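User: Structure with magnesium ion, C-alpha cells only please.
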Amino acid sequence: MTEMTMIEAIRTALARAMDDDPDVILMGEDVGINGGVFRATDGLIQRFGASRVRDTPLSETAIAGVAVGAAVQGLRPVAEIQFMGFLYPAIDQLANHAARFRNRTRGRLTCPMVLRAPYGGGIGAPEHHSESMEAMLAHIPGLRVVSPSSPAKAYGLLLAAIRDPDPVVFLEPKRLYRAGSETVTDDGAALPLDTAFRLREGADLTIVGWGAMLSEVNEAADQLAGEGISAEVIDLATLKPYDRAMVRASVEKTGRCVIVHEAPLTAGFGAEIAADLAEHSLTSLLAPVHRVTGYDTVMPYPRLEAHYMPSTERILKAARAVMEFQ
Amino acid sequence: MPDPNVEMIRYLDADGTPVQDLPDFARQRDTLVDLYAAMVRTRAFDAKAVALQRTGRLGTYGSSLGQEAIGIGVASVMLAEDVFIPSFREHGAQMMRGVSMEELFLYWGGDERGNDFAAPLARRDFPVCVPVGSQFPQAAGVALALVQKGARGVAVAVAGDGATSKGDFYEAMNMVGVWQLPAVFVINNNQWAISLRRQDQTAAETLAQKSVAAGIPGVVVDGNDVIAVRQVTAQALSRARAGPGGTLIECVTYRLGDHTTSDDASRYREDEEVSPHWRQEPVLRLRNHLVAAHGWSKDEEEALLRESNDSVDKAAEVYLATQPDRPRAMFEHMFAQMPTELAQQAGDVADD
Ligand SMILES: Cc1ncc(C[n+]2csc(CCOP(=O)(O)OP(=O)(O)O)c2C)c(N)n1
Ligand SMILES: [Mg+2]
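Assistant:
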C-alpha cells in the first residue's frame, strides 16, 4: 500500500501489466527516455527495454494503426496519444478498424489494444491541449471508453483496459495527474469495466459525472449536505458501455438528476444519459434532468478558461433548481 | 537545383567567413544589418517570453533560440501578396511579417486576441499551428486559392523535423506536386522533436529528400546561415511565382534550448552534446561576418542590444497591462451570427 498520485498509479499499472504479460508493449511520442511528457512512463524503458517501450516518430495515424495491427496479431499494445487534441487522425484507425475487427471477422481476429490520452482543461495549457471530446469516441460502436477519477481507479481500470479482449480508449483527466494522492495497492487487481461507482449515497438527487469533474461534483455534494440536501454521486468511469442500470436505479430512488461534464453541451455524453432516463425512468422523475457542461464554444485559451469550466457554483445552481422544481 | 541527398547550401562558415561568393543582397551592409537586427530582436523576445513564463506571467512557450536565421531568412524575402503559415516556433518570422510583439505575448499568454494581427502585411497570415504538420495541407489550399484568384503570391509554411513524419506533410507535398502549386514548405530541422532525435524520426538521409517522391525539388540549407536561408527561399519563391510550382527546403539547425518551458531537456540529452552547437549558432555567425567584412562596431552592437531589449520590455509592459477579454467573447466569434441556443448559453457567463 502506497500513497500515489494518478500519474504514479498509471505508471504502476503499466509496469504491473508489463511484468505480468510479455505481450504488453508501450508506444507513443516521447514515452521512452523522456518518460512521457507527463512522466506516465518514467523509468519504464530502463526497466523493460526499448523493444517494449517504443518512442514513435511524430505520427498519430501510425501510432494508432500500428497498435491495431500489433493487437490483431497477438500483442497487447498500450499506445499513448500525447494530448487528446492530437487524437483526431487516430479516429480513422479506431472507428474504421480497431472497433470493427471482431465483428467483421466474426470473432476470428480481435483487437485488444489500449489507446491512452490525457484530456481536459483547467491547467492553463496551450490551445488544442485542453479539450474533452469523449462523446466523439463513445459514439463509435465497438470501442470502450474509460475515464478514471482517482489514482486507485486509474490503477484498477487501466489494468482492466489492458487485459480486456477488445479495444479501449483510456482518457486520463490530466488536471488530476498530480492533484492529490491516495492509497493504491499494487496487487494487480483490476477494477471492473462497464461498471459505475457510487461515490456517495444520497436520497434527494443524483449527480452523475466522470473524470476530473468529480472534484467539483464532490465539493457541491458536500455543500448541499450542509444545506440539508442529500446528493448521491455516481462516477461513471466507463462511458461506453456505461452502467445504465446503476444510474437508472439511483434516479428512480432520488427522483432527480444532474449530469456534469466538461465537454460541450450539444451531443455531449450527458445527452445520452438524459435520454436514457427519459426512456426508462420518466415516471420516477420529480424534476427535469439538468446538465451542467462546457459551452458550445471552442475551448477558450487560458485567460478565459475558468469561465468555461463547469464550476461548483454552477453545479449547486442546477442542484437547487432540480430541488426547487415544482 | 542541387541534389537533396548530398549538398548543403552555405555561404558563411561558423566563423562568419564566406565559403563561396556571396549573393548580391549579402554584400550590402544595410541588408545584413537588418537581418542581424531582426535575429537579435527575436532572441531578445524569446528571452523575455521565457522569463515571463518562469514568473507565471505567460503560458507554455517554445523558444526559437539558435534557430532565428530560419524565420528571418524566410520572411525577409516574402512579399505582401504571400501568405505565411507558421508552426509555433517562428516568432521571428511572424514579427518580420508585421505581427507585433504585444500580439505574440497575448497569444502565448492565452488570449485569442493575439491572433488578430493588425499589420496589413500579416492580415492574411495564419496564426501559429499547434497540431504538428497539419498546416501543410492548408498551405497547399492557400496556394490553390492564390492561383485560382490570379494572385502572384506564394504560400509559405514552416514546421519542424517531427512534422515530416506526419501523413499531412506527404499528402500536401503530393498535391503541390500534382497541381504545381505555388507553395514553399520550409522545415526547421532543429534535430529534435521534444526528446526524439532526428535519426529516430526517420531513416531517410535528409528531410529534403522526401520531396523526391512528390516530384518537387528539395534543398538542404545551412539553417544557421541566414544568407543561405534567404537566398534559397528567394529562389524557391521566384520559382513558385514563375509557375512551375513548389519547393521543399530543409534548414539544418539545432535546438539550443528546451523544447518548451514545460520541457526539461536534461532528461534526454547531455550538455556536452549541446555545447558544440553554440559555436554554429546564427546570430554570432552573422555578427562575426559583420565585424570582419563591414566594420560592425562595439557601439553599434550595444545600441542594437539596448534598442531590442527596450522594445521587448515595452511590449511586455503593454501585454501585462492588457486586461483579459470579456468572458462572453468566447461565444461571440463562433459564427457570423450567434445562434439562439448559443446566446442562451452566453447568458450564463458574466459580461465583464
Ligand atoms: C500532431 C501533434 N502531435 C503531438 C504534438 C505534441 N508536440 C508538440 S511539439 C512536438 C514535437 C515537434 O517536433 P518538431 O516537428 O521537430 O518541431 P520542434 O518542436 O522541434 O520545432 C510534439 C510531439 C502536437 N503538437 N501535434
Ligand atoms: Mg524539431
